[in-house]
Amino acid sequence: MEEKISCDGGHEFKLLLSCPSGLSPSQVSVVFDEAYDRIPHSDSSLEHSISEIWDARVQQSSSLYNGTKFRYGGYNFDVGNDPKQQPHVSLQLGLTDYRTFVGTNLSPIWERYLVPSEDDCIQCQHTSSPLGNGAVVETSDKKILVLQRSNKVGEFPGYFVFPGGHPEPQEVGIISHEGFQELNQCRTINNKVSQEMFDSIVREVVEEIGAPADSLSSPIFIGISRRVMNVRPTAFFFIKCNLQSDEIQQLYSSAQDGFESTQLYAVSMSDLENMASKMPGCHRGGFALYKLMLKALDVDNSS
């Protein structure tokens, strides 16, 4: 399941999970539990640096605020013994926040939080590791939509990315783990978080590109990539848009979150290959997941 790819410029990525056949919402579930929360580091000075880094960042930018995020804690992948049985992924998610993300994953000393281990979840047990999301969006004229990040954003300014952001705990009424201990409450909240995985990526595409939600197909989940630099995990989805690329260019000019990017590109696969050298590792991983999906489709179509 895991694959590590080296790239120039230190932007390596690791594919934590690849689902080339693409999984629908019914094939993806979530276990939301504090067992998947971050474990504080035993080095108290390292722990104290989290608040020091956050306080310094807030002084630099008064617009920063500390929101809750879902923390990636692993997955179970069940391919099933019966050929007729659909594969199923259960994502294991805890809770973290933006402050801890800035103070661990984005810290200048982020590598000190890592534990030497082949097990990804053990290796990253002391990092915030909020689960981001990204969408490979294909237009009706078979172009892929790519954004160029603003020079004012905190991570990878000016780089090319797929539209995306984060699933949001607040969207499903989560501010802490309190109140979800009963079995029926656990089931309800797990279902809501699972739905938020798919709802949130549609929201992000609508807000960042300006395409209306009814022009987008239901997302399919294609896997999780992780940037090797500061171990940032991102879940990727594939979405078809029934608009042509020139129509989307017009809509982009009035996109709600257009300030996060400076330009929208609608590109061919060969253009995308060239742009990948200036993508953050996690988004290069998203491109790799998309290529694996296309390869699987070719195999299915030829058999």
- What's the total count of β strands? 12
Percentage of residues in DSSP E strands: 25-35%
Gyration radius, rounded:
19 Å
Name the overall outline: globular
| Largest sheet, spatial ordering of strands | 1-2-10-11-6-9
Overall structural class, as computed from helix and strand content, comes to alpha+beta
Parts with pLDDT < 50 across at least 5 consecutive residues: 1-10
Biggest sheet architecture: 6 strands, mixed
How many helical elements?
Answer: 7
Written overview of the protein:
The protein has 303 residues and is of the alpha+beta class. It has helices spanning 44-60, 98-103, 120-123, 183-209, 245-252, 269-275, 281-302, and strands spanning 3-5, 13-23, 28-32, 68-78, 88-97, 132-138, 144-149, 160-161, 164-165, 220-227, 232-240, 261-267. A six-stranded mixed β-sheet has the order 1-2-10-11-6-9, with helices on both faces. Strands 3-5-4 form a three-stranded mixed β-sheet. Strands 8-7-12 form a three-stranded antiparallel β-sheet. A hairpin with a 7-residue loop joins strand 1 (3-5) and strand 2 (13-23).
